[in-house]
Amino acid sequence: MNIRGFILGAMVFCLTSWLGFGQEDRSLTYPVTYVEVEVDAATLQELSRVFSVDHVQKIGSQKFKTRICLSFRDFDNFLSKKIPFTKVPKQRANVQMAQNYHQMTANWNRYPTYNTYLAMMDTFQTRYPQLCEIDTLLGNTIGNHKILCAHISNNLNDSEGKPSVLFISTIHGDEVVGYYMMLRLIDYLLSNYNTNEYVTYLVNHLDIWICPLYNPDGTYYASNNQINESPVSIRYNCHWEDLNRSFPDVYGPTVKSDYEPEVEAMMEFMSAHNFTLAANLHGGAEVFNYPWDSWMSWQRSHADANWWEYVGRRFADTCQFFNPNYMTEVNNGVTEGGDWYVIAGSMQDWHNFYLGTRHVTLEVSGNKVLSSNWLPSYWGYIRNALLNLMAEADHGIHGVVTDSITGEPLRALVHIANHDLDHSYVETALPHGDYHRPIKAGQYAVTYSAEGYLPKTIVTNIADGQRLEQNVQLAKHVGMEDYERHIAIYPNPARDIVNVEVIGGKEITGIELYDIHGRVVETFSETFLHQAKLNVSGRTAGTYFLHICTSDGREAIRKVVVSH
User: Which helix H or strand E contains 512, and what residues bound it?
Assistant: First the structure.
């Protein structure tokens, strides 16, 4: 222990002894400790917004037992709450480590060393060059590790207008069961292609991306050759930040000077791809946790809450078919995140709110680190559910939006009236002009709109598990009198000048430009009428959002892409 840690430990020990809460708690000092508390609902919500609350159980009508992960930076703040706690004893799973690719894949009953992980990812693309390519999201973390993502498709060079799926694991470094499962999923998809009909369908019809280890610094905190419960592996990254509390929150644009390198890299990666469906895998519980994390369902329900319930129930039921005691926590395995416990800054909520992706959190193991001999069994419980979840990206309403005269694909908005809210609409992606809208069975009025074109609304009936192909052609408008009130952004993408035009005679009273992290990067304060010309030539290429206010008191947020 260094001098700083020793002094801090002595201070915490004295303080906790004086308060009467922390008998024999000198081990709270470094580097991380789990404590358990019993609190009421209001205190739980307060704690979950300040600390890394990691598991919640309801033990009475208004009483909850929760586990809190405390880094050395959290101790003083936590102790100041004067909440009685019990220290969670350190545990050690019986972990066997694989020293090479063949040892890992022989019986799939080990965790990989870091070098074995790198070798596995390289071997995947070497053995299956037509199906797999490894992309580097972050080449060098603070702890000198790489964040890698496997791209799997029957056409790696062109998505061909297919829905894109992203699976991520281990944003918390000590939750490693998902890490194992994602490596196994990559191997399963590649090794069963053209021999397993379902796998072949998924690889042919989806553009699949799998990031097995998002927080390598936390997982390999003690050593590149060992994984286990804290402090061998830890929840945090090298800056002692909880990455799943570090994304921009959804309460409004966040002004922040910088984000963690892992967060920056993931936001840039997600913004560069029009993902239809995403999932991130955790450990410490067994439940399908759908958005929102930031609100309880009675405060703000997701537009597609009924779809989430349907997909989540199917996921949990599939797991329970293979083991009736698996994936049964919190409403028998399915919960809205905030109804379990509210947090801010989650990856799931940012991806849903800012980019319109259907992103879910999967808690896949009650133990953060399973003993190695249990790993094959848990893979058997969850494998089919993971494959079925992928397939949901190919259900719902799909198609391309094109110019009615030229046939050129368009960047268009696909919006469902009296349904979409909080950016739950989807957008087409260039160069194909394709869109993908998973949705619960029902009848919907779907409106297609693009800048400079007349919108078109089509009433559609869709069934659960159905893929409905709905291609749409839009006609250019010839006069503003033919247009309902609309905000036009063009050209989009833009190289230098972006035109913002309010159709219908209303004036523009203010425009702010946000980057993908929710930061205000420019405020356009000059006087506008119904049209503004914004110079974005000095901006880095990427995705931005325009916050536009008009004289009738309305506000709108529009996405604009800057290209060079």
Answer: strand 508-515
pTM for this entry: 0.81
The tokens describing 202, both together, are: 């998924």
The DSSP output letter for 234 is -
Alpha carbons 434 and 436: distance in angstroms, whole number: 7
The CATH number of domain 485-562, selected from 1.10.287.90, 1.10.10.10, 3.40.50.2020, 2.60.40.3080: 2.60.40.3080
Q: Where are the domains of the chain?
A: 3-87, 140-394, 397-474, 485-562
The angle formed by the CA atoms of residues 332, 371 and 108, to the nearest 5 degrees, is 95
- The predicted-structure confidence for 154-205, as pLDDT tens digits, reads as follows 999 998 999 999 999 999 999 999 999 999 999 999 999 999 999 999 999 9
Q: Do 52 and 175 contact (CB within 8 A), yes or no?
A: no
The topology (CATH level 3) of 140-394 is Aminopeptidase (3.40.630)
SS (H, E, C) 342-406: CCCCCHHHHHHHHHCCEEEEEEEECCCCCCHHHHHHHHHHHHHHHHHHHHHHHCEEEEEEEECCC
CATH says 3-87 is which class? alpha beta
Which residues contact residue 468 at a Cβ distance below 8 angstroms, ignoring those fewer than 6 apart?
396, 397, 398, 460, 462
Which residues, in sequence order, are bridge partners of residue 32? Answer: 71
d(CA 396, CA 438): 4
On the CB side of 332, CA atoms within 13 Å amount to 7
pLDDT at residue 482 in the model:
36
Q: What is the dihedral of CA 433, 437, 442, 443, to 10 degrees?
A: -30
Q: Is 356 left (phi over 0), alpha (psi -120 to 50) or beta?
A: left
**Predicted local confidence at residue 5, as pLDDT:** 40
Output the pLDDT for position 63: 87
CA distance 532 to 457: 28
For the chain, helix, strand, coil in percent to 5 are 30, 30, 40
| Domain 397-474 homologous superfamily, CATH | Carboxypeptidase-like, regulatory domain (2.60.40.1120)
> Which band of pLDDT confidence, cut at 50, 70 and 90, is reported for residue 18?
very low
pLDDT digits (tens, 9 = 90+) for 195-232: 999 999 999 999 999 999 999 999 999 999 999 998 89
Would you say the CATH fold of 485-562 matches that of 397-474? yes
- Determine contact, residues 506/551, Cβ cutoff 8 Å: yes
Token representation of residue 366: 């009650």
